[in-house]
Amino acid sequence: MCDMCNQQLTDEKTGTGTKVVPVSEAVGMILPHDITEIRPGEFKGTAFKKGHVVRETDIDHLKRIGKEHLYILEVKDYEMHENDAAYAMAKALASKGVTMKGGPSEGKINLIAEKDGLLKVKQEALTDFNMLGEVMCATVHNNTVIKKGQTVAGTRAIPLVVRKSIVEEAVKIANKVNGILSVTDIRKPKAGIVITGKEV
User: For 89-121, how does the pLDDT look when each residue is reduced to its tens digit (9 = 90+)?
Assistant: First the structure.
């Protein structure tokens, strides 16, 4: 039996969710590892990154670099792809004055300030979020003065495929407090002076 087939059987026994398919049948499926491309004298590097969802337009490219079969990742009904998880969590984490910076990449998405102000972090909820495992969010310190466009946090799914129940619980924690991250306006206080006495 071929090494690739042996590996497929091993994966099935251990429940990793990978299998081998012909390249032409891989559209819509997820790559569980990077695929390297080498063009002597021109290029050596990553052609497709781990987590990439194979598209119809990728098939010819994959065949050109010698791929007739691919390991692909099967996402079960109770699982989520890392990018879908990151998007759901970022959406729940962001409250007033905070927004996502672009879309998720490799299971991570950054959150930025929509305006100048004071970053407010609901720390207890953030701790509960990070204690779930498989997901995380790192932020700038609470009560930090920040500028519009500044990155204030990043959230990610740690494994390539994460359990839906974990993501749903993370979203629930953030939604319960109406978002963990927000930017508030810095108030400009008015000052006055009262003068008394004849010595002035």
Answer: 999 999 999 999 988 888 899 999 999 999 999
Distance CA 56, CA 25 (A): 10
Instruction: State whether CATH 3.40.50.1220 applies to domain 80-184.
Output: no
Chain center to CA of 156: 4
CATH number among 2.60.40.10, 3.90.105.10, 3.40.50.12780, 3.20.20.70, domain 3-74: 3.90.105.10
69 close to 57: Cβ distance less than 8 angstroms: no
In sign, the C-alpha dihedral spanning 167, 173, 179, 181 is negative
User: For 38, phi and psi rounded to 5 degrees?
Assistant: -125, 120
Residue with tokens 């990610």: 156
Cα 105 to chain centroid distance, Å, stands at 6
**What distance in Å separates the CA atoms of residue 10 and residue 182, rounded to the nearest whole number?**
47
Rounded to two decimals, the pTM is 0.70
Angle between helices 123-130 and 164-176 (to 10 degrees): 180
Structure tokens at 122: 């609901």
Which tens digits make up the pLDDT trace of 14-24? 344 678 889 98
Burial class (CB in 10 A: 0-12, 13-18, 19+), 137: buried
